[in-house]
């Protein structure tokens, strides 16, 4: 088993500690948090070993899980990689694109693995259909959340929209051509609601909306491609696939047939894959263990994390020109 430690024991850090302790792929060594009182309380309540310093924890581990506030990601990740340890780091990978590129290059230099915590890649609804998403030409995503002060240290783009940016980049095999976006700060000092239109070189267009001041939660994405429509509900963990094929000469009485303006008849049919229940955070952590043990590329590599951040920052920059 890989010896694992956690840097940062806040809300999400506690979840990671619990799952690493449960996992058969890791041996949880302990954690380090900059708040001594919080560390003492967590150690007392849960029994996790608290380390006196970041360096002490890193030296005791094979893999370090960074779950600190984003502003500290670069400092922590740099120490982990320079110590020759494998790195799991929560999204967004770092505070700036320059930092993300340095982290990516450090992992290569020290020949260690790194994965970014983009948990929606492991959402069972997305996993059930992502192999069916082939050459989408229009994508629409809505990610709405109720206001929570936790996470408002960054823009809603880095807090919420980056999940959809990463998912979309994973299925669109093309470079980004142009971005148009707008954002509004309502409660926070940074935008709380944002919309972005991403145009790709191959003609695909993605329209993304994210809000953290909504009355209800929503996490949905729809993918439109030739002869197919695929819907993913990340919140409810449901998916729907609607496909079209050339209509048979003698369709049965219950067949749904459409005729276009050119007189071509198409039959509509539904293909709703089975969605297996899972713990997405546990799955992403264990998939990283598998990548380390088999010396393969992680599902969400540091390079992919850096690219998602680059696009997110382009969206934020475009706010200033609106």
UniProtKB/TrEMBL annotation:
Q: Which residues form a coiled coil?
A: none
Task: Show where the Gfo/Idh/MocA-like oxidoreductase N-terminal domain sits.
Answer: 3-117
Q: Which GO terms describe its molecular function?
A: nucleotide binding
Per UniProt, residues of the GFO/IDH/MocA-like oxidoreductase domain are: 151-217
What Pfam families does the database record attribute to this sequence?
GFO_IDH_MocA, GFO_IDH_MocA_C3
Q: Which domain of life is it from?
A: Bacteria
Q: What is the protein name stated in its UniProt record?
A: Dehydrogenase
| Source species of the chain | Ulvibacter antarcticus
């Amino acid at each position: 088993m890989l010896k694992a430690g956690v840097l940062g024991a806040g809300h999400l850090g506690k979840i990671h500690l619990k799952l690493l302790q449960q996992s058969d792929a890791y041996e949880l060594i302990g954690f380090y948090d900059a708040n001594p009182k919080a560390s003492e309380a967590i150690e007392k309540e849960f029994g996790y070993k608290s380390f006196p310093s970041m360096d002490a924890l890193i030296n005791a581990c094979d893999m370090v899980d960074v779950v600190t506030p984003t502003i500290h990601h670069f400092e922590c990740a740099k120490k982990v990689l320079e110590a020759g340890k494998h790195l799991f780091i929560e999204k967004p990978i770092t505070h700036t694109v320059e930092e993300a590129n340095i982290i990516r290059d450090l992992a290569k230099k020290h020949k260690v693995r790194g994965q970014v915590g983009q948990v929606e890649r492991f959402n069972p609804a997305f996993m059930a259909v992502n192999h069916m998403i082939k050459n989408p030409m229009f994508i629409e995503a809505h990610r709405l959340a109720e206001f929570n002060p936790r996470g408002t240290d960054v823009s809603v783009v880095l807090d919420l929209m980056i999940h959809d940016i990463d998912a979309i980049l994973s299925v669109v095999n093309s470079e980004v051509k142009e971005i148009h976006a707008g954002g509004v700060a309502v409660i926070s000092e940074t935008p709380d609601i944002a919309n972005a239109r991403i145009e790709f070189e191959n003609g695909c267009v993605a329209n993304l909306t994210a809000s953290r001041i909504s009355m209800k939660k929503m996490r949905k994405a729809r993918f439109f491609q030739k002869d197919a429509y695929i819907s993913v509900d990340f919140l409810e963990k449901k998916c729907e696939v609607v496909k079209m094929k050339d209509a048979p000469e003698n369709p049965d009485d219950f067949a749904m047939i459409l005729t276009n303006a050119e007189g071509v008849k198409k039959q509509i049919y539904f293909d709703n894959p089975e969605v297996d229940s899972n713990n997405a955070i546990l799955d992403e952590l264990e998939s990283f263990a598998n990548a380390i043990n088999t010396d393969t590329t992680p599902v969400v590599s540091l390079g992919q994390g850096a690219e998602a951040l680059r696009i997110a920052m382009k969206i934020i920059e475009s706010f200033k020109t609106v």
